[in-house]
Amino acid sequence: RMLTQAVQAENTLNYSPSPCGGPKPASAAEVTLAKQRLREGFVFVGLTDEWDLSICLLHAAFGGNCLASDWLNVKMGTNSSEDGYNTSELMGFTDAADG
User: Could you give the dihedral angle defined by the CA atoms of residues 22, 42, 33 and 1, in that order, rounded to the nearest 10 degrees?
Assistant: First the structure.
């Protein structure tokens, strides 16, 4: 849904946050549009969960030397954790469009 929808306004009386900013799962049309946008609009997509491998692939695809700073977490935010994240608040939610 991040690639297909604008940010939704919060109704403070009934707002219930959920993964990807909305209560409904992505429609089949939104999944198709998101896949098209990924194919046509991005030259590279890396995975933050596989940072090291993504950086190696980036350099293999586009050149350049690996730098020590490639492997540092230089922008750790206040809501970051080296131990992973507590996903219990997702209450078992899985995104069918993500496979």
Answer: -10
Structure tokens at 96: 């069918």
Instruction: Report how far Cα 99 is from the mean position of its chain's Cα atoms.
Output: 14
Residue reference for tokens 């409904």: 24
Q: What averages of pLDDT result for each successive group of 10 residues across the chain (99 residues)? A: 57 49 74 88 87 91 89 74 74 75
User: Which 8-state DSSP code applies to residue 78?
Assistant: T
CA atoms within 13 A on the CB side of 88: 1
How many Å separate Cα 20 from the centre of its chain? Answer: 9
Q: Does the pTM exceed 0.85? A: no
